[in-house]
Design goal:
This protein has about 210 residues and is mainly alpha-helical. The protein has two domains: about 25-85, Fe,Mn superoxide dismutase (SOD) domain (Helix Hairpins, Orthogonal Bundle), CATH 1.10.287; about 95-200, minor pseudopilin epsh fold, CATH 3.55.40. The protein has seven helices and three strands; from the N terminus they run ααααβββααα. Helix 1 (about 25-55) runs antiparallel to helix 2 (about 60-85). The mean pLDDT is about 95.
Length: about 210
């Protein structure tokens, strides 16, 4: 089994491309340091789990499974976050995604406010996450604790807003709500729309 299962994805834009909304230094540290830490943590957890299986000593299994969930989830959400952002982003969605937001939330503005409130009121660190829930076939907003807590199993992330301090503090200090407002200026609705269309094909529970 290879030791490096997860890899840090490259950004498709320069660190400074999202300025003035998110400055270059934040993007550099966030991607190259914080996200890289989760990638390393996920690979380390897999390596340690392989050692546990080889020795038959499962005394540390609870810690390792928790570490795996935390770090893999951090890697996944950050990978989505980077593609959710674009220097050509902003505005509002259109087409089928806009219709779904209206049907579920009463319109884009209601959706945006719910996402911002979810991000602003996370206890400690976490995310606001717009997801597709394949059982009910509907959009939902989730408030994720850390990277892996309080979210519904089987939901598919479409749009992620990072509410960890490392995402905003260097530029916005304790004014995190200003950061959440700023993010909407660089949301790539093309990326979110593509994720939405793909997610609707998911079949979580098969009928036999």
């Amino acid at each position: 089994m290879p030791t490096e299962v997860y890899e840090l994805p490259d950004l498709s834009y320069d660190y400074s491309a999202l300025e003035p909304h998110i400055n270059a230094r934040i993007m550099e540290l966030h991607h190259d340091k914080h996200h890289a830490t989760y990638v390393k943590g996920a690979n380390t957890a897999l390596e340690k789990l392989a050692e546990v299986r080889a020795t038959g000593d499962f005394a540390t299994i609870a810690m390792l499974e928790k570490n795996l969930a935390f770090n893999v989830s951090g890697h996944v959400l950050h990978s989505i976050f980077w593609t959710n952002l674009s220097p050509n982003g902003g505005g509002e969605p259109d087409g089928e995604l806009a219709t779904a937001l209206t049907d579920t939330f009463g319109g884009f503005e209601h959706f945006r406010k719910q996402m911002n409130e979810a991000a602003a009121t996370v206890q400690g660190a976490g995310w606001a996450l717009a997801s597709w829930e394949p059982i009910a076939q509907r959009l939902i907003v989730q408030q994720v604790h850390d990277h892996q807590g309080n979210h519904g199993q089987g939901t598919i992330p479409l749009l992620a807003i990072d509410a960890w301090e490392h995402a905003y503090y260097l530029q916005y200090e304790n004014r995190k709500t200003e950061f959440f407002d700023a993010v909407w200026n660089v949301v790539s609705w093309g990326d979110v729309e593509a994720r939405f269309k793909a997610a609707r094909n998911a079949e979580l529970i098969r009928q036999t």
